[in-house]
Amino acid sequence: MLIGATIAILVVMILAITRGIIGPTLYDRILAVNMFGTKTVLLLSLLGFVMGRPHFLDIAIVYALINFISMIGVLRYSNSFAFEPPTQEKEKLPEEP
Amino acid sequence: MPFDINNVIDIMSAICLLIGSFLCVSGGVGILRFPDFYTRIHAVGVTDTLGSGTILIGLMLQCHESLVFVKLVMILLMTIFISPIACHALAKAATLSGLPPLLCNNKELEKKL
Amino acid sequence: MKDLVAVVMLAGIYSLLSASFFVVMDAADVAFTEASVGAGISTLLMLVAITMTGRSEHLVRHKPMLALVVVTIIGGLLIYGTLDMPHFGAVDSPIHGYVAPRYINDSMQEVGVINIVTSVLASYRAFDTFGEVVVIFTAGIGVLVLLSVERRPEDDAEIDSLNKAMHEQQLILRIATKMLIPFILLFALYVQFHGDFGPGGGFQAGVIFASAIILYAMLFGLSTARRVINQSFIQLVAAIGVLLFGSTGLVSLLNGGNFLDYNVLFVDPIAGQHLGIFLIEWGVGCTVASVIVLIFFNFAGRRENYKRKKHRETK
């Protein structure tokens, strides 16, 4: 059962990487990396159980934290990147209340 | 077969793992097939958290030491806490940068509705 | 691929994949360090650097054919050279014949620590680790010499008002981060002291500690973070880490043993080993954490200076 779950998570990771390569905008790629990160945490926990070594859970915790910090870093510094609008024209969004 | 508490726990753990893998795979299919960035965030954010939660609960039912159980509880709490916030931050950054959502511009579809 | 941000993201995924390889090969300590340093800190620092230099690569006028040919030839020669080595994991190679069994069999009696990686890193090969810590410290000094920026008090007031304006936008993130940071710091301390029994140790703990401080600095503004942790205090802590490591070795010399020989630190040799490993891991953790925080503060401080100058020019 554990091995079945591991294979399912590996399939999802391959799907996420595909979206990361195709994704037309930058934010699609950031989303793909984020999903890859959460699936890696799951994969590490499952592998730890399959291989009988519970020490891998430490690595899973660290990776969850690092994923979060990298996401916040990318979003915080993406304001200074010039964002190329996609081929549709930019519509005016309503002001925030 | 005899009604053993170990068998019941094994079956419950297997069911949790099955549900969790199904949710994660559906999230993975969703990120490839949805038409727009904001819909994809919806797919990833919801299924990621819930799928991770169920898989971790399934693992928790299978462990024998208490330290491993505590660590799994910590990973579960952290995932439930962090994952929706990261998706919120991503959506907010995309909105503030001006990424337009896919609106319904098709006049025939509007006539049908 | 011309987009540097996409390249940085892919580099992050690459180091994550190598961490997974290490996990599959059952090397937990290395996977730990690779995941925290490669996928976390390197990505962040490269992103901060990209915000200053620009997002896409400049056009290259010439095609570097000669360089490609040279690299291919030398790479081919290197691969041809490695074919001579014994196969990966073969039982009769010299490593598995003499080196590894000696450490695996004798480590528990001589050092008394369960994690053999820690015993090799901190006791058998402690001088090597000392060299690594000094290299990290020198990198910190180099960044300070090249990149540090003069700060004036009137700039701080300007940045403060900017930060308050951002508070509305980032409310959810700020509240969530405030709840998460104590947990990260506590986990860093756990990893530091748990290096004897599981994967962990000084390097990984220092990186996690530094990433908590970097998270705070990113979300709440650099000047607020500088008020929480003073730059001169961080420099002091970095120096104290190297000093702690070196003086453990000197005390061993003064007690009659070799440099960094822990058996003479205490009455009982095993207790001396434990004390020695504890002290030097503490030194490594201090230095690594403070140097990474220093590097980030200086990178980001430069960027703030640059933004402020542009803001004043456009007014």
* Total count of strands of chain C: 0
Q: Total strand count of chain B, please? A: 0
Termini separation of chain B: 57 Å
Average pLDDT value of chain C?
Answer: 83
Helical run tally of chain C: 12
Class by SSE composition of chain C: mainly alpha
Which structural class fits the helix and strand makeup of chain B?
mainly alpha
Beta fraction of chain C: under 5%
**Total domain count of chain C:** 2
Strand content of chain B: under 5%
Spell out the key features of this protein:
heterotrimer, A: 97 residues, flat, disordered C terminus, C: 315 residues, mainly alpha, 12 helices, 0% strand, globular
Walk me through the structure.
- The complex is a heterotrimer of chains A (97), B (113) and C (315).
- Chain A is mostly helical and 97 residues long.
- Chain A is built from three helices and no strands.
- Chain A has helices spanning 2-22, 26-50, 56-77.
- In chain A, helix 1 runs antiparallel to helix 2.
- Chain A is flat.
- Chain B has helices at residues 5-33, 37-60, 66-97, 107-112.
- Chain B is elongated.
- Chain C has two domains: 1-85, no CATH class; 114-314, no CATH class.
- Chain C is built from twelve helices and no strands.
